[in-house]
Every structure is written in C-alpha cells, then in structure tokens.
Design a protein that fits this description.
Elements: E1 3-7, H1 12-20, H2 25-36, E2 41-45, E3 62-65, H3 80-91, E4 96-99, H4 101-109, E5 113-116, E6 122-131, H5 133-137, E7 148-154, E8 156-160, E9 166-170, E10 178-183, E11 186-191, H6 199-208, H7 220-225, H8 230-236, H9 245-248, H10 250-263
Parallel strand pairs: 1-2, 1-3, 3-4, 4-11
Antiparallel strand pairs: 5-8, 6-7, 6-9, 9-10, 10-11
Helix pairs in contact: 3-4
Length: 264
C-alpha cells in the first residue's frame, strides 16, 4: 500500500475553515489520489501545530507540500515551520511535490527566490500554459499538451529558480509554472497552479468568504460553470476539456505513479 504524507501549509484557522467546507488541501489531494488508487494511505501533518519530525516520514513513500490561504509569503518568518518541514523532507530521500505555496517554500529552501508577481494576482484559471522542451519529456507532464489551462490562485511566484532546477512550464503571467529539482536525496517536482481543485471549487470559496484574491477573480458565474459550459469557458479563454478530472489532475496522478514505481 502506497503511503503519502501531506504537509498542510495553511495556519490552523485557515485549515480548519477549509475543512469545515470539505475543501482543505489534504482533503482535495486525498480525493485525487484515491480516485486513482482507493488503497492509497494518506496521512496529514500540520507543522504550525506540531513540527514535522524525521520519524513522521517512517514508512512514507512520497510527500505533498500544499498551497496555503494565509497572507504571508514563503520567505516570511511566519512560514518557518513549513520551511523546516520541507528541509526535513529533502534530507530524508522522499519524492515530493509542491503545489503553489509548496513550490515557493521549496524554492526558498533550495536557495532560489520568490516575489510578488509584477503582473499581479493570477486568479481562478492559469491559461495557456506552455511546456518547455524539458517539460515535454518530463514524467510529471506526461500526456499534457501545450496551451492547457488549470485552476490557480497566487500572488507570489518564483523569481529565481534554485541553481540546478529545470523549468518545465510557463505562461504569459508567470515564468515558472512548473519546475523540477533533483540533487542527491532531493527529488522534487513543483507546480504553481492547482490541479487538485476544480474552478467551481474556487468559485464557491470566493462566494462563501473574503479572500485576498476576490478583487482579481474572473466572473464567478463563468468560473463556476467552466467545467461544463463551453460558452463560459470561451469567455474565460480556456476549454471545458481542460477540466475533465483525468486531465486537470495529470501532474498529481503522474507523480503518484512515479512514487509507486519507485516503491516497486
């Protein structure tokens, strides 16, 4: 049985609010992984409550570093518990994947830099993501086609990749939409967007509470319907085909397959 550990990057109040609506990051990732393999075991650690310990990785096959809903950046002092958790993961030879804030945390830990995007927030849908030549052959991007769209929501982005990192995907808003980093025990894949959620989930979150992304969100009616309404998708500059479950979750299902292959 494959054992995946999810590191919850949000603070306890944010994580609890999201759990109450059944859309916390661990819940979202668990649904994706178990839709592929119902036998996957998933456990969660919240470093803001209890620091991650090396022993927490015993028997773990792969680690997810999630996004977060707090206003601070990955290089802020407040994010130190998550950076420490990331370092422990990197020190213990576990394949890992970071999504949004998780990508940014890993970038900081590995010596790269992040910053608030000069293009402002990228909210709702990251559009027209293009694969680099390296991305076209990387296992995370297997079956991805250039020009895809996927759910997103971020203020910060990677401004300087860690030395040795490989750029896998970009779009006009954000240069580093996906990257990989392999060095010694570190086997990390990172993505800036959110394949674990559907746009309608993001639309529901905007409707139910305040968010720093609300003012930059696309029309919520279209965002809520984009998965099945071709006209709404066209207005948002994407396609309903982008959000078929097996398509929008490709990076995660490819990573799970990669982890399972390594376990043997």
């Amino acid at each position: 049985m494959t054992h995946i550990l999810i590191v919850e990057s949000s603070s306890p109040p944010v994580a609890e609010l999201r759990r109450s609506h059944h859309r916390s990051a661990p819940q979202n990732f668990t649904r994706v992984f178990q839709s592929v393999d119902p036998d996957v075991r998933v456990t969660t650690r919240e470093p803001y409550i209890n620091p991650l310990r090396p022993s927490d990785l015993d028997g773990v096959d792969g680690v997810v570093l999630t996004g977060q809903g707090d206003p601070w950046a990955a290089d802020d002092l407040k994010a130190e518990p998550i950076r420490q958790a990331c370092q422990i993961v990197f020190d213990h030879t576990k394949p890992s994947i970071g999504v949004c804030f998780g990508l940014q945390i890993a970038t900081v830990v590995l010596g790269g830099r992040i910053m608030a995007s000069p293009n402002g927030f990228e909210t709702g849908i990251a559009k027209q993501i293009r694969l680099t030549d390296d991305g076209k052959t990387h296992p995370m991007m297997q079956h991805r086609q250039c020009g895809f769209s996927v759910a997103c929501g971020h203020r910060d982005e990677v401004s300087e990749m860690p030395k040795g990192a490989v750029l896998l995907a970009s779009n006009n808003h954000t240069q580093v939409q996906a990257m990989s980093y392999t060095n010694g025990p570190i086997d990390f894949w990172g993505i800036q967007y959110h394949p674990e959620v559907a746009p309608s989930t993001i639309a529901a979150a905007f409707r139910e509470g305040k968010s720093m992304f609300s003012s930059s969100a696309p029309p919520l009616e279209d965002l809520a319907r984009v998965e099945h309404d071709a006209q709404a998708a066209a207005r948002l500059g994407c396609s309903v085909d982008d959000f078929v479950l097996s398509t929008r979750t490709l990076e995660l299902t490819n990573w799970l397959a990669y982890v399972q292959n390594k376990v043997g």
